[in-house]
Structure formats: structure tokens, C-alpha cells
Amino acid sequence: MSLKYVLLDKKDGIATITFHRPEALNALNSEVLADLDAAVDDVIADDEVRVVVFTGEGKSFIAGADIKEMDGCVGLDIVNYSRKGVEIFRKIELMTKPTIAAVNGYAFGGGFEFVLCTDIRFACSKAKFRLPEVTLGIVPGFNGTQRLPKCIGMNKAKEILFTGKMLTAADALELGILNHVTEPEQLMDEVYAMAKQIADNSASAISLVKAAVNAGADMDIDIGKNIELGYMAACFGTPDQIEGFNSFKEKRAAKFR
């Protein structure tokens, strides 16, 4: 598979997808989205991959959507461009494998929206976050208006969306957007340490936990509890459940497939 604008690396069950358009601070255009989509399809299909890490090359994670490509678009042109990003982001959000964002720098516009579709979020202390769309006379196009309120609450999300203000990594951590903030030189070490911890657990159980959490976020608990019950029952009799129980009884570390 030939990719120009993202780099794909796999090692020890962990796939790393790196945004690789440093001349444009990794801004998202149609070509970047196409390469991202191909890389995501690859890791979804690879049974050896248990965790997926996303990061950026250079001083930027993703500096937003490419203004040059959007300039001059009208009507269906911009709808089709936005829909492409929305569909890929949703695919990442719903993939059975856990995802980790390693935000190494600027996460503006579409970059901030991308972070919101990942499961676990790390950032270096120098990272910056912003949804500047209202300062450009537009609305976020990759579902930032939908995911941010679910992440931090309606009022705080509206403040960020209405003002277009900049957030530091510390701000994002305090708001609950991030799980962890590290020093720049420690970012990837800490990300991979968590990725390895997750990869050592049962992939089948994690996929069902993720599905249950995602489903429950959008429904009443009385429906969600039955989904969780069904997923829990589905685990029993699987190789991972048998190995997990045997390792517990034998007082040893589990060795999942």
C-alpha cells in the first residue's frame, strides 16, 4: 500500500498512523483524508493490530482543514468534502480496536475534531487546541458541534465554539478533553506504555467494552444495561475468557491471543 500523506507503522500489536504533511502543518485535505481512510482500513483488517495510535509529524498534530481547498467551494462541494471527513472520523470512533491520540502540537479545527473521535487522548504540554470556525464565518464541519458538548457539557462547549478561543494542553486536561499531559520528550514513551498495557489485555473483551460504552452514550440506561448484559454473556466460552479465568485460578499473567 502506497501512502503519501500519512505514515503507517506496526510493531508488537500497536499500529501508529502519523499525519505526514509538514509543509502544511498536517492540514487535512482530500488527499490526506484518502490516505487516512486507507490506513485505517488496513489496521481494521489486520488481526495482529490490537491498538492504534495517531500522531503528527513536526510541530503540528493537525492544523485544521485545508482552507485553500475549501476556498471557493459552495453548496454540494463543501457538503461532499465535509461528509468525507465525517465518515472517516466516525469509522475511527466506532472501530473495534482502541485508539489513542498523541497530540504533539497544534490541534486546530478539524484536528481538534479528530482528537474528539479517539478513545484515549494524550498531549504534550506545548499542544494547543482551538475551534476557530466562527472567526472564519463558518461552522465546524467534522462534527465538533456534536462531540464537544458530549465530552465537556453544553455550556463549556458553547463558550469554546462561540469564541474560537485557544486552549492550552492544561486547559484541555482540566476540561476533561484529555486523559494525560506530558512533557514533549516523554509523549510517545507514555503513549506506547499505555498502548502496550491495553494490547496485553483481551482484544475481544476490549472491543465489546468499547461497543457498550459507545452505545450507552446515546441511549437510556435501561436500554444500555441490556446491551452490556448481552456483551458480557457473549464473552463466556471465548478463548480469551477461558484463558483469563484459568490464569486467575493459576495465579499467573494471562496470555491472550
From TrEMBL:
InterPro entries: ClpP/crotonase-like_dom_sf, Enoyl-CoA_hyd/isom_CS, Enoyl-CoA_hydra/iso, Enoyl-CoA_hydra_C. The keyword Lyase applies. Pfam families: ECH_1. Coiled coil: none annotated. Keywords: Lyase. This is Enoyl-CoA hydratase-related protein. The keyword Translocase does not apply. Belongs to the enoyl-CoA hydratase/isomerase family. It comes from the Bacteria.
